[in-house]
Amino acid sequence: MPNRRTHIAVGAPAGLALAAVNLLNQDYLDAAIELFGGLCGGGAGAALPDFIDPPCHPRHRSVGHGFVPVGSAAALWAKNLPSWQNRLRELANQHRIQRTAADDSLEAFGHLLMELIFRFLAGFAAGIGAGYISHIILDLGTPCCIPLVA
Q: CA 59 to CA 150: how far, in whole Å?
């Protein structure tokens, strides 16, 4: 039966891979930040179902593992992911422009920080869903499987 370590070991690379597929035409530094976000999001997403339905709880395989709620959320995530990522990239680009136009170094640093956060989140958005789905796929192979609803 997959444990937390196994889920994260599978989910983190899944998040990294999906972030890599969704990179578009970005320079190396921007791509590296998004890939790191995908790796972190994949690990977080892989741990999330057991945070929602803790393994020590009698209803461990409940709504956080249910095929219908997870499938519905995954469909919503997949449909909106490109627009979410594009918006986060636009916000990062706006901060890049504001950083270059900044009058003082503290203001420039603030815009740099926000740019990095938005780029990280663009990758994280891809990774968290991929990690979550990898958790559910791994749990399909266990004796308890996953419930249809909750």
A: 9
